Amino acid sequence: MDKKRKYELLGESAVMRRLRAMVERAAQSDAKVLITGESGTGKEVVARILHNRSPRVGKPFVAFNCANTTKDLVQSLLFGHEKGSFTGATEKTEGIFGVGNGGTVFLDEIGELPIEAQGVLLRVLETGCRQRVGGAEEIPCDVRLVAATNRELAVMVRDGSFRRDLYQRLNVVRIITPPLREHMEDIHEIATSWMAHHSVGRTLSEEQIAALMKYDYAEGNVRELINLIDRALALDIADFDSMIAEHIEMNMISTDEVDNECLDAVIRNHVRKVHAKYNGNASLAARHLGISRNTLRKYLVPTK
Asked: What is the DSSP letter of 36?
């Protein structure tokens, strides 16, 4: 566990207060937790708080990203292997579940776990024991399992890519991390707290906070908010409106579009569509795009 870093869920909006209350309640039990939510909404932060507020706090917290390995290695990484059990296995290992014994194991992106490994994980959850790859010994395994995903596991169950019995085992306590666009009022606290911890002596102006609050964070959520702040700090950017406009411009362009049209034409076309969607209301269109009205008008003016 990283003892130097403080993990917290910031914000006084109703959705964040409800989230904190649920996490605090869930932390006191040993039930399995499934955390769902969009990318960048703080699922690992929730997992670490669950551990830090639990009776297991003095024991290990071990995180594993199920997407960052191959189906051939995942069982070894999770449950360990015996020396010589496969090519390259020069030493016996304990795996994530061995290292995390007594503590919390956090399986991020659980939806990416290969179907073969899903069955092995299910057996571990049912028996409370694990076997190293290449071994026959049943090793007691005492961990509190927390899993997370931004995928719809129920849909994956229906299409056969995720085991129904494993889903039911994981989905004991469900915690949903809200997207940033559902609690925009918390941007001020999140942004100023980040600045206080990562850029001592520097603050954000009200204009800069206002610019950050115009963006809808449809993809990256809190992670994208932090990235915008970090970019501004690294490049010493004061005009957040312009920075965010540039960010939007880069994100809205696909490779195919760039091949067939010039960059400026694609941007103008997108801005016009959004402007039309809001019946010519510049304020609403600019808010949706995350740019100022002046920037919006610039792209609405016909090119010569």
From this structure: E
The answer to whether the beta carbons of residues 16 and 190 sit under 8 Å apart is no
pTM above 0.85, yes or no: no
My answer on whether 237 and 286 are in the same domain is: yes
Examine the fold and report which residue of 121, 152, 178 is the final residue of a domain before the chain moves on: 178
What distance in Å separates the CA atoms of residue 284 and residue 85, rounded to the nearest whole number?
Answer: 62
Residue that is last in its domain, among 150, 178, 206: 178
What are 162-221's pLDDT values in tens digits? 999 999 999 999 999 999 989 999 999 999 998 888 776 778 888 888 888 888 787 668
Nearest-angstrom CA–CA distance, 281 and 98:
59
Q: What angle do CA 192, 195, 198 make, to 5 degrees?
A: 150
* Domain range enclosing 188: 181-300
Residue 3's nearest CA partner among 68, 82, 59, 70 is: 59
Q: How many domains does the chain have?
A: 2
Q: Which residues pair with 35 in a beta bridge?
A: 148, 175
